[in-house]
UniProtKB/TrEMBL annotation:
Native source species: Phytopseudomonas seleniipraecipitans
Similarity section: Belongs to the ETF alpha-subunit/FixB family.
Domain of life the protein comes from: Bacteria
Listed name of the protein: Electron transfer flavoprotein alpha subunit apoprotein
GO molecular function, one term: electron transfer activity
Coiled-coil ranges (or none): none
Domain called Electron transfer flavoprotein alpha/beta-subunit N-terminal: residue spans: 94-263
Length: 409
């Protein structure tokens, strides 16, 4: 028999998808093995040891205490320490300019850092350039080797001209092998194109893959791909690469040797304008309150959306039953959303619905059924009646706003 290892992509997909009916059959019973990079990999689903949590759900003990002979659970503060990847003298630099929406790395930014590491290999370092203040505490596990934070009023708000000046200073100091920016509407798309024109580079846009020195990007209204030799400047789409997950990086702070000149802006930022969340297209909304068959009081649901300042979404059943317009349907046959927070009320989590929320950062579920697939998918869950929880949410938000008004007065 030949030694060639044959892969079965379908079986691999099923093995990764814990909602697939054949998932269990394709799980290896091995609980621990050495991965190709020398890292120990664990399969938490094959671990028999676990305990029943306060909500009656089975919890897996990832601390390893239950598999090591001792039946005592270790404290939840025991954190897995990933191996530290240090690049003392980088041969070259890959520069990434994350969007940092809300001061944190978005999932799009993390995908980009994953791509940057593919391009950096062992000898290169990933340099993240961040404007203004941030709230991010996980640059190290996201894959940042060097962190350049550019602070100052001149970078606050919408300031693309000043930012391009700063990036030109980075170009002069580090001469990055590649520049990577998210091809997003929230910043990177425009900043990247401005930087390209300033550097005289022809960027690759909406890039979803970089392999063997070639970049492939979407074109023709999403119906065509353009493949070309990977240029220096890559404006990448979400999911262009797997985010870094197996290593920790230094995130060593660096500075520009020369101060960045201040330009006389031709654009004046007049500040943010309040918008009606109901008017925001769902695909662009950052915060979605989505209702399903478990919502019985739709007037309350609409009041909750207004109180929370959320854009409304719905499951197909809610739309079919006439509670919400067709344009609000989330899922495989509706809109694929990319919200930072997706709050699912009374939605069971059918696969067609979950497909539509795959790119959401945080999913919060409100449901009566603790075993439903939406609860399994959620980062946070509240088990209870939708109406009671929405009512309590509205009261909390209103009390919070009243308190803020009183403090301001
Ligand atoms: C080809 C095809 C395409 C599809 N495309 C889509 C799509 O794009 N989007 C989509 O959403 N669906 C789609 N569907 C339908 C999908 O399979 C599910 O039927 C649908 O998503 C279920 O909607 P639901 O979760 O709102 O309802 P249900 O499955 O009925 O779930 C209701 C949930 O509410 C909970 N609940 C009940 N009462 C309460 C209460 N008082 N408080 C809190 N929770 C409560 C229940 O526990 C349950 O989990 C598609 C189906 C097909 C066949």
């Amino acid at each position: 028999m030949s030694d060639i290892i044959r892969r079965d992509p379908r079986a691999e997909r099923i093995a990764r998808n814990r909602l697939h009916p054949l998932h269990a059959a394709l799980q290896t019973q091995q609980t621990q093995w050495m991965g190709p990079n020398g890292l120990v990999r664990k399969n938490p689903h094959a671990i028999a040891a676990g305990f029943i949590g306060p909500a009656g759900l089975k919890r897996i003990d990832r601390s390893g205490a239950q598999q090591g002979g001792s039946n005592k659970r270790q404290s939840s503060s025991a954190v897995v320490q990933l191996p530290l990847h240090v690049v003392e003298q980088p041969a070259f630099v890959i520069a990434v300019v994350p969007d940092m929406v809300g001061g944190r790395l978005s999932s799009h930014d993390k995908d980009l850092l994953g791509l940057a590491h593919q391009l950096a290999g062992k000898d290169g370092a990933v340099l993240a350039v961040v404007f203004g203040e941030h709230k991010e505490a996980a640059f190290d596990t996201a894959g940042v080797d060097r962190l350049l934070q550019l602070e100052g009023d001149e970078y606050s708000g919408y300031s693309p001209e000043q930012r391009v000046l700063a990036l030109r200073a980075v170009e002069n100091q580090y001469n990055p092998r590649h520049w990577l920016l998210p091809d997003s509407r929230t910043g990177g798309g425009e900043l990247g194109r401005r930087l390209a024109s300033s550097l005289g580079e022809r960027p690759a846009t909406r890039v979803w893959q970089v392999k063997d020195g070639k970049s492939t990007g979407r074109a023709g209204a999403g119906r065509e791909d353009i493949a070309r030799a990977a240029p220096r400047l890559l404006l990448a789409a979400a999911e262009c690469a797997e985010p870094v997950s197996e290593t920790r990086h230094e995130a060593r702070a660096v500075k520009l040797s020369d101060p960045v000149a201040r330009n006389l802006p031709r654009i004046e930022d007049l500040g943010s304008v309040a918008v009606d969340p109901a008017q925001i297209p769902m695909a662009e909304s950052e915060f979605i309150l989505s209702g399903g068959n478990g919502v019985k009081d739709w007037a309350l649901f609409h009041r909750a959306a207004v109180a929370l300042g959320a854009t409304e979404g719905a499951s197909r059943v809610a739309v079919d039953d006439g509670h919400m317009p067709r344009g609000r349907q989330v899922g495989a046959t509706g809109t694929w959303v990319t919200a930072r927070v997706y709050l699912a009320v009374g939605i069971s989590g059918a696969i067609q619905h979950l497909q539509g929320i795959g790119a959401c950062d945080k999913v919060v579920a409100i449901n009566l059924d603790p075993g439903c697939d939406m609860i399994k998918r959620a980062d946070m869950a509240v088990i209870g009646d939708a109406a009671a929880i929405l009512q309590a949410l509205i009261e909390r938000v209103e009390a919070h706003r009243q308190g803020a008004k009183r403090d301001a007065a």
